[in-house]
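ping. complex inputs:
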Amino acid sequence: MAVTSQQLSSSLATLIETLRERLGAAQVLTGDDVASRQVDWLSRASCRAAAIVRPGTPEQVAEVLALCHQARQPIVTHGGLTGLVHGAEAAPDELALSLERLAAIEEIDPVAGTITVQAGAPLQKVQEAAREVGMQFALDLGARGSCSIGGNIATNAGGNRVIRYGMMRQQVLGLEAVLADGQVISAMSPMLKNNAGYDLKQLFIGSEGTLGVVTRAVLKLQPALGDTRTALVACPDFTSMTSLLTHLRDSLGGSLAAFEAMWQNHFALITEQERHQPPLDADAPYYALVESLANDEDHHRQQFEAALEASVEQGWVVDAVIAQSESQRDKLWAIRDDIEGLVEALSPIMAFDVSLPIGEMQDYVAEVQARLEARWPQMRLAVFGHLGDGNLHLSVGVGSDDPDTRHEVEGCLYEPLARVKGSISAEHGIGLEKRDWLSISRSPEELALMATLKRTLDPHGLLNRHKVVPWTAPQT
Amino acid sequence: MAVTSQQLSSSLATLIETLRERLGAAQVLTGDDVASRQVDWLSRASCRAAAIVRPGTPEQVAEVLALCHQARQPIVTHGGLTGLVHGAEAAPDELALSLERLAAIEEIDPVAGTITVQAGAPLQKVQEAAREVGMQFALDLGARGSCSIGGNIATNAGGNRVIRYGMMRQQVLGLEAVLADGQVISAMSPMLKNNAGYDLKQLFIGSEGTLGVVTRAVLKLQPALGDTRTALVACPDFTSMTSLLTHLRDSLGGSLAAFEAMWQNHFALITEQERHQPPLDADAPYYALVESLANDEDHHRQQFEAALEASVEQGWVVDAVIAQSESQRDKLWAIRDDIEGLVEALSPIMAFDVSLPIGEMQDYVAEVQARLEARWPQMRLAVFGHLGDGNLHLSVGVGSDDPDTRHEVEGCLYEPLARVKGSISAEHGIGLEKRDWLSISRSPEELALMATLKRTLDPHGLLNRHKVVPWTAPQT
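pong. complex structure:
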């Protein structure tokens, strides 16, 4: 028997009442308190959920999920709301489960190199806690002030230092997650090595909240490295840029921490804006912002400069500027990080995040450009990315972003990935936005296994329904 | 209806005949060709499987598994047979599926830093292939010449360099696995970053062949580092040893690649044997073999020596020898690696592999020793381990290793782990040997979720039945 919207409304109202009783009225937001929250950073769309529920402890998360399970009530988990693929969107008959009150740092152990945190803790708070004990937390991305550790885990966040430290998955030693029925899976192992049975935490990392709600985690800390060397270089062609990457990776002995490539279209588009003072002329086809982290200032400076000099001699680099101060470093990064400048220049912008083998990148970008130009001769394209990770971010402006246009643009970007075994999502995830393109990157057998896992762990489709894996109501 | 052993025999014989037809008679071994294979390195137990099946391609693996699925025939997958937890044992009514003919290195890409290999390739072959293109494959362990990449993946192997490069899981970019029904899950992504849906490969890494058979993988390579610095040091107490670890981790700027701790009982037991020339007196309570990898000889030597000198000044190190040549380095490692010496001295030996927070180690070892001594006053215990990974290897000799004694010794070692959230297996896995102790390290909810995954992916229990997760025949 299908549930009618009338029945749902009434049972949902009862559930909301119960949640108010359990958590306190102030922790269940409705009306304007819901609508005033933006769930999408780019579109600024408002939250449409029936209510926002804010448990204050992991135990309360379990209680909320058990109640929702009883009522067969779908929920959408909210972290810092900085995602880019509509992962936080909720329908009017869904509840949003916000982990904002679960923000404690529970423990930090500098000898073991671990930190134990609740899922709602902002990334920056974790980074600062690590610094206070003389260590560092390796994940870093632009949204650090707002994004939450739980969201970083659920989306397997990437960011600026993947080439050196890996993605969020590599930083997680243990975690605790609540299943759709309210059962708590506590896999809070603090050890680097633990082969006692299946590594269940992997199920919850990168599955975007569709298999469980992450409530706590034990994260790995890294030794702090006091000396940062940063340079912006211009390369005469793509092969030179990849030679530079290989050379720095090998000659810096593992210290290379960022290799942010910018195609001319990106570099020119940003540096022509008034707020930047272009540190290099914009006439080279490729630019790279490179950064190395070590802890021995004199030797590291010599090593970094020698590696760049050798690259100039080889002809891989035709122009370069090395940051001589923290403020110069900030200015170089401001070019790479100026997402608002991109949004402004390409409005309405469409932002893509793909990965593919480095050897295929040049042809891929040329093909995308040709496809887009053939359809929209006035289109603008800006390409940058974490070259060492095989990750490109493409920003496109074609003058419109209505759904049909968007779908056509997506086709231009995603279809050429199939041939090169590329991924339609390097780091942003799938959410709602990319779900229907997943077959570009995943085989029918993989998609079937994903659906099997979803059905097994969340048979009623209560957790982030419709995200990542399609949902159809079971036949009754 | 239950299958009787008579029926099974006859259907198994038919299946073996079919397999001979499909793969060629030479690829299905029976009789002495089976019994002459050792499936257990320590006990030298023989293979008892009804036959050993040797497919030559990933497609043939899928074909074999589809035929076994049709016949509801359980199989045990064999890699290099170097495991230590009875993971390769097969019952007389089971088939062994050996991947020894799937040993090709399919592709190597030094720019992307990837290598594509078949599961049966020995680890050492992969290491050598990486060296030939000027890179390195990071996983390294004593069994390198025999163990296979597929086995390394299935068991999430650890080894000597985890502190620097992580476990096998961190080296795997993509993989292909065959499910129990013969379906192929091809997740051969070559990219460092890929968030396009659930990361299915994680299911097959470390699950010891119970959820699928790994056939191929794309592995990550690391920059080769030309300069290795190695030292053996003596520490006056446990706190000094952990201070040394923290100091080296921080001051070597990420170059520390091994920190192998040896308790006096281990160091003395090995160095008192004639074939070693003790490089240090055996009167200190703790020893550590430390190694650092970098690519800048002069600076690295200075850095390494300065770090050790500072440790002597701090009193963390009371005696030290730095290897001055490759042959001196080999001699230092020979002490740490002398498993045969251990086996000889403690025969019949029982070998354990646990992990726990570093801060708990000293008390843990003392408690284990007290428990063992209370029961077997003449017992001998030798403790060494990868301190930076929280991983201890304890070797015990009590004069007998019959099943009851073994169980009692296991209790002495495993029970104290529960309190400190330790793991009964840091790197060896669970197999048959540790399965019934899993509840020490995993909660009932975790064990239930593991069983759910097993039931979902392998409903008939055909893959490494009884290993890791208990198997009971479904009610009919």
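The domain at 5-101 of chain A is CATH 3.30.43.10 (Uridine Diphospho-n-acetylenolpyruvylglucosamine Reductase; domain 2).
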